[in-house]
TrEMBL record:
It comes from Pandoraea eparura. InterPro entries: Rossmann-like_a/b/a_fold, Universal_stress_UspA, UspA. Residues 146-167 are annotated as: Disordered. This is Stress response protein NhaX. Residues 1-147 form the UspA domain. The gene is nhaX_2. Residues 154-167 have a biased composition (Low complexity). Belongs to the universal stress protein A family. It comes from the Bacteria.
């Protein structure tokens, strides 16, 4: 019986890693639905930045980037011989959070598995930015595969420190 795999993507490196894990996991008859959620910058930034930034232009850029990401992801899946479709979810129309939209689409589409990347933020960064993956895990009753990004290497932090010291 074919499975329905919902892959959430935001175009990040971690999302591309999640795509490749979904490819490794998918069987020949499975279908992968790729979703990209377009957040509404007006909800988060209107009061603070409205006079300094054209938030409509920011939103247009987000829509364009989402379409590029969906197109590239679809092509990758198609090239691997995997049945796929894509869906952009605009929070202006759907409301709620990114995690809400992912969970609602998984329910609506009857996904058997959700696949998404997690950025692995900790401490203050996690507190300020939140965790879509964690929110999805809390809300859904469907299986979830979380894919992490590469662990930072000790060498890369040493290199950054030495560049700063030379500055």
């Amino acid at each position: 019986m074919p499975h329905r795999i919902l892959l959430a993507t935001d175009g990040s490196e971690t999302s591309w890693r999640a795509l490749h894990e979904a490819i490794r996991f998918a069987m020949p008859d499975d279908v992968v639905r790729v979703v990209s959620v377009i957040d509404d910058p007006f909800v988060h930034y209107q009061s603070a930045f409205a006079s300094h930034i054209d938030l409509e232009a920011v939103r247009d850029g987000m829509v364009s980037e989402s379409q590029r990401t969906l197109s590239d992801t679809y092509k990758t899946l198609h090239d691997e011989g995997i049945q796929a479709d894509t869906r952009a979810i605009d929070l202006r129309a759907w409301g709620g959070t990114i995690a809400d939209a992912i969970v609602r689409e998984a329910e609506r589409w009857h996904a058997d598995l959700l696949v998404l990347g997690t950025h692995g933020r900790k401490g203050v960064r996690r507190l300020l930015m939140g965790s879509v993956a964690e929110e999805v895990l809390r809300q859904t009753h469907r299986p979830v595969m979380l894919v992490t990004g590469p662990a930072p290497s000790p060498q890369s932090s040493d290199a950054a420190a030495s560049v700063t010291d030379k500055g």
